[in-house]
Amino acid sequence: MASSHDVDMTGNQTPPPIPSEEPKYGGFTRFEIELEFVQSLASPLYLNHLAAMKYFENEAFVEYLKYLQYWSHPPYSKYLLYPGPTLKNLELLQVKEFRRDIISPDVVARLFEEGVKKGTEGPGS
């Protein structure tokens, strides 16, 4: 991945159109690229990696995370394979303290524990 200084977002970005005849970047549409990236945010280890690479210190990258919140709304949310952890972590990434704290192995472990606990609970738990 490019360095954290290579992120370039303009302030007036709009979500990509649902898969269509939009331009392709490296063979993929912007929709596909953003879908894959936002789904990767479900992984606490990936969040830790981004923190270790100092992406969360890049204001343009933080703005990009804010922009990605459109995935929490229909019609986009229906394309997420793991909407629960993806959207929860995207929401947590809006908080400066979380972006700072995710570098800690304890925070990563706690996110994993919460995910496992939710995955093993039955209906109504």
UniProtKB/TrEMBL annotation:
UniProt entry keywords in alphabetical sequence: Activator, Nucleus, Transcription, Transcription regulation
Single GO MF descriptor: transcription coregulator activity
InterPro entries in the cross-refs: Med31_sf, Mediator_Med31
This protein's GO CC annotations: mediator complex
Keyword DNA damage among record annotations: no
Region (Disordered), start-end ranges: 1-24
Physiological role: Component of the Mediator complex, a coactivator involved in the regulated transcription of nearly all RNA polymerase II-dependent genes. Mediator functions as a bridge to convey information from gene-specific regulatory proteins to the basal RNA polymerase II transcription machinery. Mediator is recruited to promoters by direct interactions with regulatory proteins and serves as a scaffold for the assembly of a functional preinitiation complex with RNA polymerase II and the general transcription factors.
Family as reported in the entry's similarity comment: Belongs to the Mediator complex subunit 31 family.
Record protein name field: Mediator of RNA polymerase II transcription subunit 31
Organism name: Phialocephala subalpina
